[in-house]
Amino acid sequence: MLETIDQLQSQAEAELADVATPEDLERFRIRYLGSKGQMKQVMARLKEVPREQKPAYGQKANALRRRLEEAYQQRKAQLASAAGPEAAAAPAAGRAGARAAPAARGPMLDLTEPGLPPRLGREHIITQTINELVEVFGRMGFDVATGPEVEDEHHNFVALNIPPHHPARDPLDNFYITGRDDETTPATPGSPGSPAALLRSQTSTIQIRVMENTAPPVRVIATGRVYRPDEHDATHYSMFHQVEGLYVDRQVSMVDLKTTLLQFAHAMFGPEADVKLVPSYFPFTEPSAELYVKINLGGQWQWMEIGGCGMVDPAVFEAVGYDPEKWTGFAFGLGIERLAMRKYRIEDIRWLFENDVRFLRQF
Ligand code: DAH
Fold first, then answer.
1. Cβ proximity of 187 and 154 under 8 Å
2. Which residues form the pocket of ligand 1, taking CB atoms under 6 Å from any ligand atom?
3. Would residue 319 be called left, alpha or beta, if left means φ above 0 and alpha means ψ between -120 and 50 degrees?
4. Which of 161, 239, 309 to mutate to test the pocket of ligand 1 (most atoms within 8 A of CB)?
């Protein structure tokens, strides 16, 4: 079904390219955008689209309609400005009898000509995805927390139970801004000269900041940019976004974690999406798991890894002054680009940050 929209797009664009006169353009409008036109039919066919494809189909159809309308308006403005000088000059030449055709001197300024329609701006696809995450988790009672992008080692590593020689702290894997005095000394926040500053490599830093400043129970998500010196390719970029979740209360269990993530997957990818937790390791959770969601990609169900999660490690609770005998919690961290790329079928992460409006306008 989705392919029929692509076909219609190529056909319409080819036809528009051949439009030479206002009459051609009017025929184009009736055929594609008119009340009995192709776009109306595409919309009418939504009924027949299988349920799980409906959102994708609807989005695609709407995007095409917008695109054709914009292209139509543009062509209309072009035809009008091409016709302007001649149309204005013809009667004058008739009366005065001796005027050179102004078309030869280039277009005249015609103050009565309608302006080009202004294009409306829109939110970047990552911003839209963040808003959706805030909304979905908000419905489950999660507040939104924030934290700084320039961090110290205490929040990025130490309090998260990542010891001094852990590979995650390697200078080659992080954007350190100030150097460390002594590689073996864990940073102490506030002690002059000691803690190195770095661009945060994960939003897990915000878990620590929230717990340092709030008494349990807590239920927050935090979204934001993180930085890692990765080579840029279709799936890697040196800056990307994560959403972090933290839930601390009495007797929180893995069941709560999985249920929360399942609700999230349903809200984000439709009622047939599923989740699975695959055992893994993170220093700040025990047990830890990788989160997979089962989503429909072009008619096929596939498992996609979208982040990590687990039960908050008691060492993390100790680092923030929570009593691990009393409190339990779960945490998760997901890649926002990954979510957006799967959901909107974007193949290359670099497209998200090139700011080419022809790309951004599609969402
Ligand atoms: N911070 C991890 C990363 O960037 C992701 C993560 C894993 C976050 C497990 C969590 C968690 O909160 O519990 O790779």
1. yes
2. 202, 204, 244, 282, 285, 307-310, 331-333
3. alpha
4. 309
Pocket test for ligand 1, best of 166, 174, 204, 258 (most atoms within 8 A of CB): 204
Beta bridge partners of 334: 243, 307
- Residue 117 token pair: 């329609």
Quick one: fold of 125-149+200-360? BirA Bifunctional Protein; domain 2 (3.30.930)
Instruction: Work out which ligand 1 atom sits closest to the CA atom of 284.
Output: 13
Tokens of 260: 């929360």
Per-residue pLDDT of the chain (363 residues), as tens digits, is 788 899 999 999 999 988 988 999 999 999 999 999 999 999 898 999 999 999 999 999 999 999 999 999 999 998 888 876 554 444 443 344 444 444 455 667 888 888 888 888 999 999 999 999 999 999 999 999 999 999 999 999 999 999 988 999 998 999 998 866 555 455 444 444 456 899 999 999 999 999 999 999 999 999 999 999 999 999 999 999 999 999 999 999 999 999 999 999 999 999 999 999 999 999 999 999 999 999 887 788 999 999 999 999 999 999 999 999 999 999 999 999 999 999 899 999 999 999 999 999 999
Domain definitions of the chain by residue range? 2-84, 125-149+200-360, 159-198
Contacts of 251 (CB under 8 A, 6+ apart): 328
In the structure encoding, which two tokens stand for residue 25, read together? 């353009």
What spacing in Å lies between the alpha carbon of 124 and ligand 1's midpoint? 25
